Amino acid sequence: MQTRFTPAQLSDPATAMSEAVIRKCVHCGFCTATCPTYVLLGDELDSPRGRIYLIKEMLENEQQPTAEVVKHIDRCLSCLSCMTTCPSGVNYMHLVDHARAYIEATYRRPWHERLIRAVLARTLPYPGRMRIALRLARFARWLEPAFAASAVTKPLAAMLRLAPAKVAAAKAPESAEARNTRKGRIVLLQGCAENVLRPEIREATVRLLTRCGYDVAFARGEGCCGALTWHLGRSEDGLHSARRNVDAWRREMAAGLDAIIITASGCGTTIKDYGHMLREDPAYAGDAATLSDMAKDITEFLAEIDLPEGGKAGAAKVGYLAPCSMQHGQKITRAPVDLLTRAGFTVSQPAESHLCCGSAGTYNILQSDIAGQLGDRKAANLARLQPDIVATGNIGCATQIASRMSAPVVHTVELLDWATGGPVPPALASRNSQ
Ligand code: SF4
Ligand code: SF4
Q1: Same domain for 290 and 193
Q2: Which residues approach ligand 2 with their CB closer than 6 A?
Q3: What is the rounded distance in angstroms from the CA atom of residue 55 to the CA atom of residue 98?
């Protein structure tokens, strides 16, 4: 795509980066067929190509974006399906991240949007605050139909719908030592939402990794990866989270570190991008790039090491829901399926597995109508597989799909732990006892 940026505009590193991305786009439109919002809405401006054009115009003209432009950028899920499809290597992720930061800095949203976005940014990345919010949500559930009736309160209705019936008590993470011949030491990301919603994922990961011979450490001072605020366009908040985590992991490197393991693929995509996010900060750029290279999804790591013998959980039929941040963001497609198959499960993937389930961070709260349609579509495709269990690798996808499925939804690592000697995952155990 041709651009008309001035030399003065290109002296800004973020604009120069976006210009290089835009110029790579050759308008071929291949990406439109795999973009969930274009598939649903059929509007060119809700396609990757249309959004690239809108972003180009917005940045070139240094315009304050209109409500119409913001609407189409907001509707993007950041699922990155377009990046998997694009033959020209357009880095849409970096472009839309820049666009979101530009919108946040130049556009004044209606009061109710500002309020809900501020609440999300100040609640979700903090496990203590999130736990309190989820407990309060239990008492407000009856308000959901009333909230759903108004555009202003619709995000609140979506939050109430997504809130789980039970919230586990807070439990401090405990480092654990290898149980078999020691092979190395890893840091396990503590994360934010995952451990509040499903603490069993962390427990299964610790059991499995120590059984595989790894010491598991939790870094002091670490927190949310920053993805939630970064994708809301709150760049400074996102960068603050990234710097805090780089500081925490730097300290761990002194004790020997083989990898930073992540069990939520949405976090993994962002952490693997820390090198890019902090590229202009001389105090962090080098270590951020090194630590990004050390970040691995749990399935990516397990695929490279010897797993204990599987088969202890039987050959249940597993429908695998590939999170977008895993398949498009990190290009991890085979590892989860191969690991589950090797562990004795019969694994299949649904039709349209490249399409997002609609979770996408805070998308299922802020764009609940589109998210709901995508969630229903994903659940219907999964149900056609008639699975005994649904497995996925991202807490957002598990939460989005669980209420739409009759089969229990678990994390891939819970099944791998079970098949190699761990306990039955709680979501399955509670079904069996009913
Ligand atoms: S990130 Fe996903 S929703 Fe956004 S333009 Fe690309 S394919 Fe479409
Ligand atoms: S597939 Fe790539 S090059 Fe083609 S229109 Fe989409 S972003 Fe541009």
Answers
A1: yes
A2: 25-31, 48-49, 82, 85-86, 88, 90
A3: 9
Q: Count of domains in the chain?
A: 4
User: And the tokens for 274?
Assistant: 């820390």
- Residue-wise DSSP of 177-231: --SSS--EEEEEP--SHHHHH-HHHHHHHHHHHHHTTEEEE--TT----SHHHHT
Residue 366 maps to a domain: yes
Long-range Cβ contact pairs of 9-13 (< 8 A, separation 24 or more): 9/59, 9/60, 9/62, 13/279, 13/280
Instruction: Tell whether 150 and 93 lie within a shared domain.
Output: no
Domain boundary among 302, 334, 352: 302
- Please check whether residue 433 lies inside any domain of the structure: no
The whole-chain average pLDDT of the chain stands at 95
Our answer on whether the CB atom of 82 is closer than 6 Å to any ligand 1 atom is yes
User: For residue 175, is it within any domain?
Assistant: no
Name the nearest CA neighbour of 218 among 228, 203, 230, 239. 203
Residues 6+ away with beta carbon under 8 Å from 115: none
In angstroms, what is the span from residue 402 Cα to ligand 2's centroid? 33
Residue 30 CA, closest ligand 2 atom number: 1
Atom of ligand 2 nearest to the CA of 89: 2
pLDDT of 331: 98
Q: What residues make up the domain containing 148?
A: 111-162
116 shares its domain with 102: no
**97-145 pLDDT, tens per residue?**
999 999 999 999 999 999 999 999 999 999 999 999 999 998 898 999 9
282 alpha carbon to ligand 2 midpoint, in Å? 33
Which residue type occupies 96?
V
Same domain, 288 and 266: yes
**DSSP 3-state assignment of 235?**
helix
- Are 245 and 232 in the same domain? yes
pTM over 0.85: yes
- Beta-carbon contacts of 412 under 8 Å, excluding residues fewer than 6 positions away, are 298, 299, 320, 336, 339, 340, 391, 392, 393
Q: Which two tokens stand for residue 427?
A: 């979501």
d(CA 365, CA 386): 28
Residue nearest to atom 2 of ligand 2 (CA): 86
Q: Are 53 and 1 in contact (CB under 8 A)?
A: yes
Q: What percent of the chain has pLDDT over 90?
A: 88
Mean pLDDT score, 43-66 = 96
On whether both 124 and 67 belong to a single domain, the answer is no
92 CA to centre of ligand 1 in angstroms: 8
The answer to whether residue 326 sits within a structural domain is yes
